[in-house]
Automatic annotation (TrEMBL):
One of its GO terms (cellular component) is plasma membrane. Signal peptide: none annotated. This is ATP-binding cassette domain-containing protein. It comes from the Bacteria. Keywords: ATP-binding, Nucleotide-binding, Transport. The chain holds residues 86 to 327 of 331 of the full protein. The keyword ATP-binding applies. Transmembrane segments: none annotated. Residues 8-242 form the ABC transporter domain.
Length: 242
């Protein structure tokens, strides 16, 4: 059998907003070094799940465990210092600064959060994100794919062991999607970073993910290889709304 190393685990996580449960009793493991896709219909709780992992939200009940440590009450800043990074659905950049300054800001944030320099060099980030020729450009002038690469570069500059991305492919055409997936593959393959990608484009997820987690109405549905998950009758029903 195969031995798996859990990098992050959720144990019976519930997230309430007032009386509303956006997540109910969710448990699963994220393997070290895997690319995990997270899919589910609009409003299923994907972004909520991601924020419970990265510290944007504190779980109302249950535990989040990273590298064997319970991190449930920790802020985003503390989790960043432990090696957990995140990119957002809408590119959040320091628009009036240059591309290079955006990467530097990520590096400074990471250094401050961990109290030590992140173990990744600017050269590595530039070669991965192909931003080397654009360092002096104002971030506001970049096209959507480039803004996404800048946001990813800044997140990598914090020196993460694990990175969460919320719908990174939104607004990109087929060619740009292939381009971005290539970068994500390199992030995992060359840096060994664990990747969790929330994405409703299931065909793209099937291409890149080792496993896919499906959630619906805030509940765990299944977690398995893309082939098994996307051919599952219940999952097909969820997507076709039957
Ligand atoms: P997804 O990312 O899968 O589209 P979300 O995690 O954004 O779904 O939202 C899941 C559910 O939780 C939705 O019904 C949404 O309206 C609700 N929700 C998300 N954030 C909040 C919040 N801060 N306050 C109240 N309800 C929220
Ligand atoms: Mg969302």
């Amino acid at each position: 059998g195969s031995f798996r190393m859990s990098h992050m685990s959720l144990e019976n996580v519930t997230m309430k907003f007032g009386p509303f449960r956006a997540l109910t009793d969710v448990s699963f493991h994220i393997d070290r070094g895997e690319i995990l896709g997270v899919a589910g219909p609009n409003g299923a709780g994907k972004s909520t799940l991601m924020n419970v992992c990265t510290g944007g939200l504190r779980a109302s009940e249950g535990k989040v465990i990273f590298d064997g440590k319970t991190i449930t009450p920790f802020s985003r800043h503390v989790r960043c210092g432990l090696g957990i990074a995140q990119t957002f659905q809408v590119p959040t950049l320091l628009s009036s600064l240059t591309v290079g300054e955006n990467l530097l800001a990520g590096a400074l944030f990471g250094r401050e959060a961990r109290g030590a320099p992140p173990g990744i060099s600017l050269d590595e980030i530039l070669s991965l994100t192909k931003l080397g020729d654009l360092l002096e450009m104002e971030a506001a002038r970049a096209d959507l794919l480039t803004r996404k690469r800048i946001m990813l570069g800044a997140a990598l500059a914090t020196g993460p062991e694990m990175i969460f991305m919320d719908e990174p492919l939104g607004g990109l055409n087929a060619e740009e999607i292939a381009d971005f997936l290539d970068v994500v593959r390199h992030v995992r393959d060359t840096l060994g970073i664990t990747v969790v990608m929330v994405e409703h484009k299931t065909r793209a997820l099937a291409e890149i993910a080792d496993r896919i987690l499906i959630i619906n109405f805030g509940e765990f549905v299944m977690l398995d290889t893309p082939e098994i998950v996307l051919n599952d009758d219940h999952v097909v029903e969820i997507y076709l709304g039957k």
